[in-house]
Amino acid sequence: MPVFSDFYFELRDMDFRPSEHIKDLTHIWESEWDASLGTTPAKEITNEALRRANADGPTRIVAHYAQPHVPYVGEKTIGSWSTDETALGEDAELRDVLAQDRKRPTQVVLDKIYNGEVSDSELKEAYRSNLEYVLAEVERLVHRVDCPVVITGDHGEHLGEGGRYLHEEDSTVVRRVPWFVVSSDELDTESNETDPSNSHKSKSYSGSEEELEERLRNLGYK
Fold first, then answer.
1. What does the angle CA 150 – CA 71 – CA 7 come to, to the nearest 5 degrees?
2. Cβ–Cβ contacts within 10 Å for residue 99, how many?
């Protein structure tokens, strides 16, 4: 979702305009949104962040990944933009899709939960899979920059605890997010390839189960 675009707030008749507060916005969702996934692939965010990191002069970058937010596009998938509605066309553009009266991925997933199509364990598996998917790209970014890196989030998710799901607006729990400062030992360990065609494809996390568990705990997900 283009949450840092003026278009997003215009669509909701809200006064806030990100362009008035952020110097240079790059709308990856307009050029790299993948209709088959119903979201922007994580690798495209990494590619653009690395391109920016290679620019001359000092810079500060906020790379906003869509994942682990729905739709879940890891090895375990749940829902997208379509249930009983017409599927998105291959060339569908997000700006046009958002203007339609169509259920969003969050509502599609909630419907499946409340209809009994998705169990809490399946939801947790899909969320974890989506998180591992994006962390592989975060890892690729971290290893290719030589500046301080902080990993955080804009909200958490309920995964069935107390009968609550996803990020309900009245929940204070999901407003508590991790603030993880990456160790300098992890930075700049690999070449920063500026040509996206030379970049690694998104992959599942390749470390051991113990390392993954520790990283998830450090990020506040355990």
1. 75
2. 11
How far is residue 128's CA from residue 67's CA, in Å, rounded to a whole number? 11
* Among 155, 166, 158, CA closest to 105: 166
- Kindly report, residue by residue over 134-182, the tens digit of the pLDDT: 999 999 999 998 888 999 998 999 999 999 999 877 788 888 888 999 9
Q: Structural domain boundaries of the chain? A: 6-218
Hey, what long-range contacts does 173-178 have (CB within 8 A, 24 or more apart)? Answer: 176/220, 177/152, 177/153, 177/220, 178/151, 178/152, 178/153, 178/218, 178/219, 178/220, 178/221
Assigned token pair, 138: 């975060």
**Distance in angstroms (rounded) separating the CA atoms of residues 189 and 142:** 8
CA atoms of 173 and 156, how far apart (whole Å): 8
Does the global pTM surpass 0.85?
no
Residues in the chain: 222
- How far is it, in rounded angstroms, from Cα 208 to Cα 60? 32
> C-alpha angle with apex 145: 140 to 151, nearest 5 degrees?
65
Tokens 């339609």 correspond to 100
What 8-state DSSP symbol labels residue 88?
A: P
Q: Compute the distance between CA of residue 81 and CA of residue 86 in angstroms, rounded to an integer.
A: 9
| Residue located via tokens 């009266």 | 101
